[in-house]
Amino acid sequence: MPISHIMASGMTGIRAGGDLVARMELSKSMRIKEAKEYVAKKVGVDVFDLADEYAMRDVREELGIGVITSVPGAPKGIAAKMNIEKALDTKINCCDFFRNQLKQ
Length: 104
Fold this sequence. Notes:
With about 100 residues, the chain is mostly helical. It has helices at about 1-10, 20-25, 30-45, 55-65, 80-90, 95-104. Helices cover about 60% and strands about 0% of the residues. α1 (about 1-10) runs antiparallel to α2 and α2 (about 20-25) crosses α3 (about 30-45). The longest helix has 12 residues, at about 30-45. The radius of gyration is 13 Å and the shape is globular.
């Protein structure tokens, strides 16, 4: 866990794209360069923009994948994670768990 935290906060975490890159490194065993390229392609930005808080703020709001400050009407929590699942074409365990809870 400390390594994933360092990686996510090193690219400014949820303020930019660090959390997305770290998620791909851990869930799909990608190297950092490969993960950055994958995330950049999926969210439609240049690799260098992943660490740019200003550029990623707009991207995160457009895709509904969560921002650090509250935005009225914007997805938060599990809703944002479900949007991350869709944007990155990956599975997130807590989203599956939540969907299963809704079925019961």
